[in-house]
Input
Amino acid sequence: MSRLRGVPIDVWFEPIIILVIGIGYALWYRSAKFTETERVALEWSNLQHTILEHIKLTVVATIIVVVVAIPLGIALTRPALTRFEPIAVNIANIGQAAPAVGLLVLFTFWLGTGFRTAVVGLVVYAILPILQNTIIGLRQVDQRTIEAARGIGYSAARTLLLVELPLAVPVILNGVRTALVILVGTATLSTFIGAPSLGTLITTGVTLFLPKLLVSGAILVGLLALTIDWLGRLVEWVATPRGIS
Output
């Protein structure tokens, strides 16, 4: 209960924002008059499929990024590999610096269109925040704490698992949250290479000049990004060891 009394403001305030926007959109949707194209696109059976495809694209890309970036970040903080850190970070930074659409088009020439190409492009684009935060989080662990763990007989691996990683968790999870939000927004561009997503609503709205469809797509992407960001913040708060802000 004492833990609940200390809930940070963003943990409980963000869902209120999501709820207000969601209710506002629902009320607008009920009162708006849609064209036949808008009505078909926003019909629940079609919309549900589009949302699920967007979430699937985001989740698959996130899992791959986490599986690659966190172990790589851990490895680069070990003394034997630390000299390779600038090289790895600079390579990851290329993906972040390049335009997302450009990356997707580039990979299309190599892998063709569709879901797989979209996932590869998203992974390259979102790997930097998690990699960088993993390195920063582990570097911030007090060296005296590590030495104390080694002094009581912990091996290097046990020190990493029981001391360094738990203390680095808040920073690492913050990087995961950042990557998730980036992925949700960038996944809308997958529609240009034949992978269904909420971006389909936006591009259709722009192409056919259907403002209500465009607005619906933008609001739904925003709601999804806010929801995922809040879930990530909730996990970050729960996983943060007591005594660490």
